[in-house]
Amino acid sequence: MTLTPSPAPGARRRLDATDLARVAVFAAIVAVLGLPGGLSVFGSVPITAQTLGVMLAGAILGPWLGALSMAVLLALVAVGLPLLSGGHGGIGAFVGPSAGYLFGWIVGAFVIGIIVHAGRRKPVWWRTFLGMVVGGILVVYAFGVPVQALVTRLPLDATAAMSLVFVPGDLVKAVIATAVVMTLVRAYPRAFRRSWTTTPHAEEAAASATPEPAEPRVP
To answer: 18 Cβ partners below 8 Å, 6+ apart?
Structure first.
């Protein structure tokens, strides 16, 4: 029997068919979340559920595959597939007011994966929620707001103030995404396809439970 050595900790493994399938699945999830279209707030501002898929992609697939899944989705949009909210697609989506938010999905998914799986540790709720807020909201807004201001020719501060209406809905999505991720961690950790190290608290508990070596007896 031939034994295949396991990869060293921290070594990056090559993409396999399962990785590519997972990338395609999460690209499809984000597309499906856009099918209902946007919910109009105050009569004009649409809020969609697609950023929920971005958050889940980064947290479950990790930084590289999460970013790749968003890049695949946007590539399909660029060739004309109607995968954005409300069935929109085509190259025009990348020159409109929301173009920055779309590119922010790629970076946001990467940042989420970095934070959620920091130090190759198992996701915990506070780090998962932090990743959703930083990567799924702040990073996406950091790309989206300046581009929106540039396209609409509005002042940057005014555009940022207008974008605040999205924050409550995004925080709700961050809570939902965190709950989904923590449920998967407990019920189906294989969904992540990652090997985790123990958390610092677990390491301290293991160290405290290890008996000290007995001193040699002097005859």
So the answer is: 193
More confident residue, 102 or 9: 102
Strands 45-47 and 39-41: antiparallel
Each domain of the chain, given as residue ranges in start order, spans: 17-194
Fold designation for 17-194: Arp2/3 complex 21 kDa subunit ARPC3 (1.10.1760)
Spatial distance between the Cα atoms of 74 and 91, rounded to a whole number of angstroms: 10
Which residues make beta-bridge pairs with 197? 121
pTM recorded for the entire structure: 0.82
According to DSSP, residue 45 is labeled: E
Percent above pLDDT 90 for the chain: 65
pLDDT tens for 33-48 read 988 766 654 444 457 8
